[in-house]
Specification:
Structural class: alpha+beta
CATH class: Mainly Alpha
Strand order of the largest sheet: 1-3-2
Number of helices: 5
Largest sheet: 3 strands, antiparallel
Oligomer: single chain
Radius of gyration: 15 Å
Distance between the termini: 26 Å
Strand content: 5-15%
CATH superfamily: Winged helix-like DNA-binding domain superfamily/Winged helix DNA-binding domain
CATH topology: Arc Repressor Mutant, subunit A
Length: 99
């Protein structure tokens, strides 16, 4: 097998992405968002969280640039900012969750 070679910038970028995955609830949110945009309530339901921690996790993911919120009427729909995240999450699912 060939060696995997990355430069320091790439290594930093990927390690920052993995930091976003490092909390189970954030990972659940990102997994749910990989299926498409959803509201805070949908994220709460999917992750089994109350409103306060959901908002805190979303604030961190927004700050990290992983998600963006778009207002639709009286609710905000959140979505992933980078389509590569969807592929990465699908790979993680295939390797660790798909029986």
């Amino acid at each position: 097998m060939a060696a995997v070679v990355v430069n320091k910038r790439q290594a930093k970028e990927v390690s920052e992405i993995f930091k976003s995955f490092s909390h189970p609830s954030r990972l659940l949110m990102l997994c749910r968002l990989s299926d498409g945009a959803c509201s805070v309530q949908e994220l709460q339901d999917a992750c089994g969280l109350e409103q306060a921690p959901t908002s805190q996790f979303l604030a961190r993911l927004r700050k990290e640039g992983r998600v963006v919120g778009e207002r639709h009427g009286n609710q905000v729909l959140y979505s992933l900012t980078d389509p590569r995240m969807i592929e990465l999450l699908k790979t993680l699912y295939r390797l660790y969750c798909d029986a």
